[in-house]
Design brief:
The protein is α+β, with helices and mostly antiparallel strands. It has a single domain, classed as Beta Polymerase, domain 2 (2-Layer Sandwich), CATH 3.30.460. The protein is built from four helices and five strands, in the order αββαβββαα. β3 and β4 (about 70) form a beta hairpin. The radius of gyration is 14 Å and the shape is globular.
Length: about 110
């Protein structure tokens, strides 16, 4: 999936291994798109690739103007964000606390 997203110009692709961290899947793939239309296209490309690989059941959510599209491929969950939405939710730091950077606004 990472190669498909890269081929279609996704930005800042991150793969997180969920083994031993969660039962929701094996991998979490996070990437940034340049527009809502780009997010939707990336999701469709990834969904087509998954089906070509024999993954029959895929679920796509968030195709409206939310700035976040989720593609559930069973063992792999793909999160596609607009840049500002990705910063807001910061999923990477949720799965790897070492990535969390405290800002002066976070201090009491």
């Amino acid at each position: 999936m990472e190669a498909v997203l890269d081929q279609h110009k996704a930005v800042d692709i991150t793969v997180i291994d969920l083994n031993g961290k969660s039962s929701i899947g094996d991998f979490l793939l996070i990437a940034t798109g340049t527009s809502q239309r780009h997010l939707h296209a990336l999701a469709l490309y990834a969904q087509e690739k998954a089906k070509a690989l024999g993954i029959g059941h895929t679920r796509l959510e968030g195709t409206d103007a939310s700035g976040w599209v989720i593609l559930d491929l069973g063992d792999v969950i793909v999160h596609l964000f607009l840049a500002e939405t990705r910063v807001l939710y910061d999923l990477e730091s949720m799965w790897n606390p070492k990535l969390y950077q405290r800002t002066s606004q976070d201090t009491p």
